[in-house]
Design a protein that fits this description.
Helix 2 crosses helix 4. Strands 1-2 form a two-stranded antiparallel ribbon. With 191 residues, it is mostly helical. The protein is elongated. It has seven helices and two strands; from the N terminus they run αααααααββ.
Length: 191
């Protein structure tokens, strides 16, 4: 079969017709993500808008050019003491919402992130988890690189590596020696 025949005989190969309504929804989604602090890689992954369009939209909404550079790819950040507590709080909210609310992945992520921010603000703790890191955390969990493990002492679910010891003890029940000693405003303090 020739390539000409293949191209004309497969209607699925045609590009979808442009929809003003769909484009409007994509712009609205991108605007919301930009306002939450999403980096360009997140916008490119979660919308169908062109890179150039996203750059213009980012500059218009944020009033500056987007940050350059690669997204963090290491799972290590999510496993350090304070960062793990913040990541675990977010992921527990995310998992809870995913079981009870029928939302697409971006809506679920944004709702979970807003709830995370409300919780840390109420506790007068500085939020350590950026929106882009929250997005990356969900991607790591989906890829099987991180998971949640139950603490053997408090029964809370914490972000851990995939094959964590089943007698896992979280950083709240067994904090590291220097944990909670920071003089930084908004840091977690142990009493």
């Amino acid at each position: 079969m020739s390539s000409t025949t293949t191209a004309t005989s497969t209607p699925a190969a045609k590009a979808p017709a442009k929809s003003v309504l769909n484009e409007s929804k994509q712009i609205e989604r991108a605007a919301m993500l930009i306002q939450m602090g999403a980096r360009m890689q997140v916008l490119e992954s979660e919308t169908t808008l062109s890179y150039e369009r996203l750059i213009r939209l980012y500059k218009e909404i944020a009033g500056k050019s987007p940050s350059k550079g690669q997204l963090p790819f290491s799972t290590d950040w999510f496993l350090t003491w304070q960062e793990n507590i913040h990541s675990s709080l977010f992921l527990n909210i995310y998992e809870y919402l995913s079981k009870g609310v029928d939302l697409d992945s971006v809506e679920l992520l944004t709702k979970a992130y807003r709830l995370y921010n409300e919780q840390v603000t109420t506790a007068e703790i500085e939020p350590l988890l950026s929106f882009t890191r929250a997005w990356r955390l969900v991607k790591f969990v989906d890829a099987g690189m991180l998971t949640r493990t139950k603490c053997s002492q408090c029964s809370g679910q914490f972000v851990t590596e995939l094959y964590e010891n089943r007698h896992y003890t979280c950083g709240l029940c067994n904090p590291p020696a220097r944990a909670g000693k920071s003089k930084t405003a908004g840091a977690l303090m142990l009493h």
